[in-house]
Amino acid sequence: MTLLAAQELVKEFDVAGTAGLVRPARRFTAVDHVSFELHAGQTLALVGESGSGKSTTARLAARLIDVTSGTVLLDGQDVTTLSGADLLEVRRQVQMVFQDPFSSLNPRHTVERIVTAPLRYQKRPMPGGSRAVAQGLLERVGLDPGHVDRYPAQFSGGQAQRIGIARALAVGPRVLVCDEAVSALDVSVQAQIINLLRTLQREEGFGCLFIAHDLAVVRQIATTVAVMTAGRVVETGPRDAVFDDPQHEYTRKLLAAVPRIRPEWEAARRHNAGARLETTTSTPRGE
Question: Does 287 map to a domain?
Fold first, then answer.
């Protein structure tokens, strides 16, 4: 079942002209007719270089910014024009995990206050009180429940990102949008956060829209991959199909730039590339 879908999303921004020069204001298209589908319990990875439009697409999907045109569907309902209580419910169902955990956590607030903030914002009950709820959330993400009175600066980067994930889980979202959620972390910590997200997804069944530029990370978590460049999706497919037999030249360039940590990935890619070359250069049957 399709949980979240984007249909022909477009986002344009006004770019101011340069004072004193004959350069008028113009419109910049950051997202150009992007469509995708995300299913419950699966992870769709939007990948591409910096400036490809993937993070803007994520913010459109989460209704953090408004679309210029196109639609975002949650369970088949168009959410692009919702406001008030209806938009508040969308925000409950679609939660964000941001790139820099420290920038997204208020340094003046305790962990208890941080992770229960969505519940207060949504005016939802907290059985047993906010402290008990915060302790339960910390335990779910692998942190010491006794640390609810600490402040963000007292945690490592990986621990801070776990706090961000706990905050996102507080209201029971059906979609988790992870915008470069592990790119600021060390490789070993990245693996821990990826494993945590996969475990939580199995337990909770949420869909995950995972924004990343690191294809090695994407290979570990994605079910489906959509490759973006210049605001457009140029290739979409199951993870293994995209990695082992990329069809678009841009996808092949991205994969060629990835350090080959696992030789079997490179072997599969070379085999499929060779098969394509042989097909295009061989004499057609019957001639």
Answer: no
**Interval 3-15: pLDDT, tens:** 999 999 999 998 8
Is 151 among the domain residues? yes
Q: Which residues contact 12 (CB under 8 A, 6 or more apart)?
A: 27, 28, 29, 30, 68
Percent over 70 (pLDDT), the chain: 87
**Domain enclosing residue 228, as ranges:** 2-281
**Residue 258 confidence (pLDDT):** 78
Q: How many domains does the chain have?
A: 1
Residue 116 CB-half CA count within 13 A: 22
Q: Assess contact for 228 and 52: CB atoms under 8 A.
A: yes
Token pair, residue 277, equals 């070359």
Q: Is residue 286 part of a domain?
A: no
Instruction: Give per-residue pLDDT as tens, 202-214.
Output: 999 999 999 999 8
CATH of the domain at 197: 3.40.50.300
Residue 134 lies in a domain: yes
Give the pLDDT confidence of 226-277 residue by residue, as tens digits.
999 999 999 999 999 999 999 999 999 999 887 754 555 556 656 665 555 5
For 29-58, letters b (16+ CB in 10 Å) and e give: ebbbebebbbebebbbbbbbeeebbbbbbb
For the beta carbon of residue 149, count every other beta carbon within 10 angstroms. 12
Residue 193's nearest CA partner among 87, 285, 101 is 101
Nearest to 178 by CA among 123, 104, 110, 87: 104
